[in-house]
Design goal:
single chain, 318 residues, mainly alpha, 3-stranded antiparallel sheet, two-stranded antiparallel sheet, 7 strands, 46% helix
Length: 318
């Protein structure tokens, strides 16, 4: 891809009010007090760990990587003082940020970090070079889609590319506490391959409420979502305020019953959903009909007759 999102770029974050801070759970409150630099170093380390796949990073490697990143950002004038990211705060211009190639250059001749440099080399000179560079996407757009193509990306690297999109989107949502942002995470369980990332997703669901933002998680593989990263998917589900269940197969209905403790009547409602949904929020449950507009049907339907009509209309307009 010609599009690049710099995983090493630090974005500013708005200050959360004391009232919102008090309303947060302790673990989320503590993480929100962490400096932007520390959070970014955690993100980069997580990114490298994902690049390594099933190989676990050693304590020595993680420590060296953390120290190297701290020194690298310091050379760019960025410290644990959040104000240090600004080149011109009034004009909201941040300083130049390092890229993965800068990190690779710092570690290239350290034999103890050979495993790290091996995976980074793929980003610098290999087939993942779209990850190595400064962000060239207009992030001021109000609607941005990060398309992580499962057919174009090797399965082992899919969580890595998803994480780059996740890290960027979550950072953008925290830039303001008055914009009503929404992050849609489709099949995010594919990225939640270890406990670190699962905890980040769980914290994000809780934290973004303080920034007037929300997270929407969608999946067609409920069982995989609930069982990902040692059961953290279930924890994420428990921390969502609204659940929206569409038609499910019998196995998924039993799984939902296990986690949601539905009554016999509610269980039967799930079994009979057809162009309907069951919405659960604040202990209340409501069955609703799903009605699509003509425009939505023409744009999104997979019905062969409608697809044919759509193609014919596009042909006539051309």
């Amino acid at each position: 891809s010609r599009n690049t999102i710099n995983i090493m770029a630090i974005m500013p974050a708005a200050q959360v009010s004391d009232e919102e801070m008090e309303a947060m759970e302790e673990d989320v409150r503590n993480s929100s007090k962490t400096s932007l630099l520390s959070m970014k170093i955690t993100s980069v380390i997580t990114f490298v760990q994902l690049m390594m796949g099933k190989e676990e990073m050693t304590i020595s490697e993680e420590t060296t990587l953390s120290v190297t990143l701290t020194k690298l950002y310091a050379d760019f004038g960025i410290t644990n003082d959040d104000a240090s990211i600004w080149e011109n705060r009034e004009k909201r211009i941040v300083k130049d940020m390092p890229i993965l190639e800068d990190l690779y250059s710092r570690l290239e001749f350290d034999l103890s970090m050979s495993r790290i440099t091996t995976v980074l080399l793929r980003c610098v000179d290999g087939d993942c070079q779209s990850l190595n560079g400064h962000t060239n996407v207009d992030l001021t757009n109000r609607y941005i889609v990060f398309d992580v193509d499962k057919d174009a990306i090797p399965e082992r690297l899919l969580p890595t590319f998803m994480y780059v999109a996740y890290d960027c989107a979550s950072s953008m949502a925290k830039e303001s506490e008055i914009n009503f942002d929404a992050i849609f995470l489709d099949e995010v369980w594919l990225m939640m391959v270890n406990e670190t990332i699962a905890k980040q997703v769980k914290a994000l669901v809780k934290l973004l409420r303080a920034y007037a933002a929300c997270v929407i998680l969608a999946t067609q593989d409920l069982e995989d979502f609930l069982n990902c990263a040692g059961g953290f998917g279930a924890s994420v589900l428990n921390n969502t305020e609204i659940k929206f269940f569409l038609k499910l197969n019998e196995n998924e209905i039993d799984l939902v019953q296990e986690y949601m403790h539905f009554s016999t009547k509610e269980y039967k409602t799930l079994q009979k959903l057809d162009h309907q949904a069951l919405i659960c929020s604040n202990g209340e449950k409501l069955k609703c009909d799903l009605l699509a507009s003509k425009h939505e049907i023409m744009a999104l339907s997979t019905d062969p007759n409608i697809v044919k009509a759509r193609k014919q209309k596009e042909y006539d307009l051309a």
